[in-house]
Amino acid sequence: RQFDISRVSLSTIETVWSMKELICLLGSLGFSGAMLLLYIHFFPDHWRSLWHRQKLARMILENHWYEVKQTQSEGFFKDLNSSRTRETISYFPKIYYRMKEGLLSIRVQISLGKYQEQLLKLEKKLESGLYCELVEKELKDSYVEYTLLYDMIANRIGIDEVVAENGTLRLMKNQVWAYDSLPHMLIAGGTGGGKTYFLLTIIEALLKSDAELFILDPKNADLADLGTVMPHVYSQKEEISACVEDFYERMIARSKAMKEMPNYKPGENYAYLGLPPNFLIFDEYVAYMGANRFPTSIE
């Protein structure tokens, strides 16, 4: 029997879905969706890394930070004049992405091209686009490396978890301040950003250790109230100046005493000799220095 295709029309084609086929379709869609949700739940970092890399590629494309060239492509039939011109990418910036221990490392190759200035100033785009905080920007041979802290909300810890031990202070799940090797900290932020509460949290954690604290609050605000429960808290101009000078003299005297200890070793710090750390906590330091001048000997 012959089949006449000319008699076939859309009106004669009927698609009949049985209940079994419908259940199979819905089950397949539900299973695929469940697997996707499980993947995102158990492998959030990998999912986020794919999302970040897609954003980086889109940043290059939408800003046109690449170069193209015109190429001729021949048609399928070579005897016909069917060649056409198309654009192909001749240069695309090399970007290396790595996610490790809560930090993003993004390396961008610098090739002295016309997009060099844009690639050297990506920090604001990366912070806002990837919802990260820039930790370090380092210019190296032929590339610039941006190090960013990501997923800050998920890595926050409670005040009780901020503990000072073994020369380090835990600030986040993936961030510590190693004050033994890096003794200086600058806290900056806008008004109402939580700088004072952050300082109070650090002070509480350090008080639970063997550290000795000297607190200066020239505004006579929240930190000055600590004077009712602990020593070495100053808010008046003369007291602050005297405390800074005394702290400096203590530092010089202890440095000389350390060199005379039998177990002294060049390059090691106070912790190696079993001495307690001393902290000078100065609130509103820049404003105070702008309004007052210390003696030249201790500036």
TrEMBL record:
The keyword ATP-binding applies. The keyword Transmembrane helix applies. InterPro entries: FtsK/SpoIIIE/SftA (IPR050206), FtsK_dom (IPR002543), P-loop_NTPase (IPR027417). Signal peptide: none annotated. GO terms for molecular function: ATP binding; DNA binding. SUPFAM superfamilies: P-loop containing nucleoside triphosphate hydrolases. The chain crosses the membrane at residues 21-42. ATP binds at residues 189-196. Residues 172-299 form the FtsK domain. Keywords: ATP-binding, Membrane, Nucleotide-binding, Transmembrane, Transmembrane helix. PANTHER family: FTSK DOMAIN-CONTAINING PROTEIN YDCQ, SPORULATION PROTEIN RELATED. This is DUF87 domain-containing protein. It comes from Enterococcus faecalis.
